[in-house]
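Rotation project, supervised by the postdoc (A.L.). Task for the rotation student: set up a whole-complex structure prediction and record inputs and outputs verbatim in this book. Inputs entered:
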Amino acid sequence: MPLVRVVVTLKPSLLDSAGRTVSDSLVKLGFDEVEGVRIGKVIELHVTQADPSRLQAMCDKLLANPVIEDYQIEVVD
Amino acid sequence: MPLVRVVVTLKPSLLDSAGRTVSDSLVKLGFDEVEGVRIGKVIELHVTQADPSRLQAMCDKLLANPVIEDYQIEVVD
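Outputs recorded:
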C-alpha cells in the first residue's frame, strides 16, 4: 500500500510565531548555531493508490490552506 | 547556511486522534482510497553548522518528546 507524505508549511512571507519561539528557546539553551526556525505539519497518508491529481485535491480541499500555506507531496513507497 | 529538517511523529503504538479525524473526513469527501493518516510536525532549522550530535541534543531537549515521539533528522543542504 503506497505511503504518501505531505509537508505543509506556512508561506515564507508570513511570520511563524511558534517557530520564532522555538528558535529563541534553542539559542537560550546554548544552541547558538540556530539562526531561524519554521514549523509545519507532516501528514502521512496510507492509500490504496497514489493518484497525483487526487492527492492534490485532498491538499486543496482539506489538508492545507492554500491562501497561507504551501505544500509538497511525495510518494514514499 | 545549512538547512536541517526534523520530522517528529507520534510513536506508531500511540493513537493519533487528529490523524483519525482527518482520515475519516477525507473518506467522507469521497477520497475512499485513504486507509489511514498520521500527523506529525516538521521543523526546519537554519543553522550556521549542522553538527549531528548537537542536532540530536536539540531534539531530545526541546523539539521532540522522546517518550511518545520518534524523530528523523535530515540535512537538506
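Student's summary: Chain B has one domain: 3-75.
Supervisor addendum: The longest strand of chain B covers residues 34-47.
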